[in-house]
Amino acid sequence: MPKKRSGGGLSATQQAAKFLGVSVLSGAVLAGIALPAVGALGLAAKGSVESFDELPANLKTPPLSQRTTILDAAGGKIATVYSRDRTVVDLKDISPHLQKAIVAIEDSRFYEHGAVDLKGVLRAMNRNAQSGGVSQGASTLTQQYVKNVFVEEAGDDATKVAQATQQTIGRKIRELKFAIQVEEELGKKKILENYLNITYFGQQAYGVEAASQRYFSKPAKDLNLQESALIAGLVQSPSRYDPVNDETEALKRRNTVLARMAQVGDISEEQATEASSTPLGLKISKPKNGCITAVDGAGFFCDYVRQVFLTDPTFGKTPEARAKVWNHGGLTIRTTLEAQAQKSLQASVKSHVNKSDEVATAASVIEPGTGKIRAMGQSRPYGFGKNETQINLSVDQGMGGGAGYQPGSTFKPIVAAAALEGGMPATKTYASPYQMDYPTPVSACEGKTWNESGVPVENENETEVGPYDMKEATAKSVNTYYIEMISDIGICPVTQMAKQMGVERADGNKMMQAPSIALGTQEMSPLTMANGYATFASRGMYCTPVAIESISRRVGEKSKSLPVPKSTCSRAMSEKTADTINTLLRGVVEDGTGTEAGLGGRPSAGKTGTTDFRYAAWFVGYTPNLAGAVWVGDPEHKRQMVDISIGGTWHAKVFGGQVPGPIWRDMMSGALNGKEAPEFNLIHIPDRKKPDEDKGRGRGRGRGGDEDRDDDRNNGGGGFIGGLGGGENGGDGGTGTNGGAEPNPTISIPEGFIQGPGNGPGGRR
């Protein structure tokens, strides 16, 4: 047996035998021989090679993975994403210098031989035998292209990539057969074009267009002679000749290519000498990939678009099928994002909340009647650095967000809508005392009841004593009024109304069957709340949120449109109910807790919300043509917004109308600038006739009441809400929400009512 060289490689004799075997095989292939004696030649072992005649007749060429471009509604670029940075270009858009350089250094007889270059095989065999190693290969450009197709098809699967590149006779036979087919079907120019588009050139650049942009910041058609030679030289070893990390090696390799071009007659010796004397002339463009590159703070919206694509069956029956399409790329995705609204949102967020603040803000804007998401952003930028995050605080957990945040009193209008839809008049009056126990029992869904006596609830201020009607109770956000209301109509109509409006928990769990939901104890996302309120703005029509308008996919030289999910709209409530809610919530911004969110002369409506212990504060509002939600708080639910600096402004206590309200006002003002200002269809709601004794009650308020008192309290969090939920007949004892770690200090709770600290351990069992 011939001995191996000390370095572990094959000996000269073995190399010669190897190439001789390839040459014999190549000749046999070209002669059309079926090679029945392949095994006798030692070229196959135990099924490692299929019979040549049994190989597939056609080469399956997958679409080349390319960049995906995400656009806004007007066609402006938001971001570019890709698994492989590649832009496919025609041969006419590739510099002639580069075409010649690639052929000269990789396969100088490309235009003379067929799929297999027998002269090249023999020449390589001879030179390798003389050198005692592999100093020259024998694969043609066509064979290299076929191998790259197999690698491309393998994608990011390491096992498949290894199979596509393994040095076995089996792979060589497949490669040779397909190379013959490709030569017959495509022709030389198309093969060269495909090769230049599929090949890897280092620095995350696939194809010559990406390589040209990476190393010289210019299109491939504009490359000069020396630039073309450098890129052509990278094919053999992109890492070894990487000009970014080793200019010396890259320069040597470039000059080798120039010399080879002169040797084969593509350029003169003088041109080669002159070009070799020039520096590399690099003008590096760093790879720019992913949602982190999105403009106007739209990185989170970009990520939401990706999540939609990967989760919606419209784009493929299985997660694997959808991921494959996304990773192949070549998509142009036109979204619903409106540049004006997005810029306004981001400017407002930036001016009111610093990314380094202890708390964050997130906001979403949606179009009523269509479900189109027009803007989405937050104060902590999309990224991996300090004060950055990849968690989209605006969306549900299943779409890349967190577990949500208690919306506080912004949930109260949903309770009112359920009551109105059930026939309750807007003039309904309740005693609304400052403090009371939750009425019991309270009917729930599926014939169950919530039954827990001695659970207190109170208003923020002792001067808030009823009776109140719906208009005044909503403007002042009176807790006891809404607890009396849900106790009167039952829990189930409220949870059903919420579902009809698309208002569901951010963590995907079912809504708790407890009367405390009236005060906003169930965690929601800003996008959910914005879209829920859009139902009011569209006079009772709920439309599922959508982020994608259209998608085209490049396949070869053609573009193909893909189906996209459409918004589906359904009636959640009557027009009269919606118009009544709009009337009530317009009063909130005109003369209630949300006056700081008012839009001046433009009709608007909305509701403030401040959760227990001020872990979160909200303003959710709308006009007839846009709805938006703003949340401010600690995503980790640890920092109470008391004695805190937000955006450089000190706050003794944070209220929904005080911090989120102005963010919403500025965001919506910019988004609506220059757009029509339609009126609401308002309902006349008579004022309650007040007895004389009301005059001295001291119900006066400052600007919306926010400066003098908390606008609303949800009386919930953690174990306390667990206690409320645990009173439902047939319940599980109340697991609670992931809210606060202690009860509201303004509420008198019976001793022993809370069974444990932390994550809502439950109520009485």
| Secondary structure: number of strands | 20
Number of helices: 22
Numbering strands along the chain, what is their spatial order in the largest sheet? 2-1-3-13-14
Query: What is the arithmetic mean of pLDDT?
Result: 82
- The secondary structure category is alpha+beta
Tell me about the largest β-sheet.
Answer: 5 strands, mixed
Radius of gyration: 35 Å
Low-pLDDT segments, ≥5 res: 1-52, 133-137, 693-765
The share of residues in helices is 25-40%
Please state roughly what percent of the residues sit in beta strands, choosing from under 5%, 5-15%, 15-25%, 25-35%, 35-45% or over 45%. Answer: 5-15%
Gap between N and C termini: 83 Å
From the spread of the alpha carbons, the general shape counts as elongated
Name a few traits of the molecule.
765 residues; alpha+beta; elongated; disordered N terminus; disordered C terminus
Explain briefly what this protein structure is.
This protein is α+β, with helices and mostly antiparallel strands and 765 residues long. The chain has 22 helices and 20 strands.
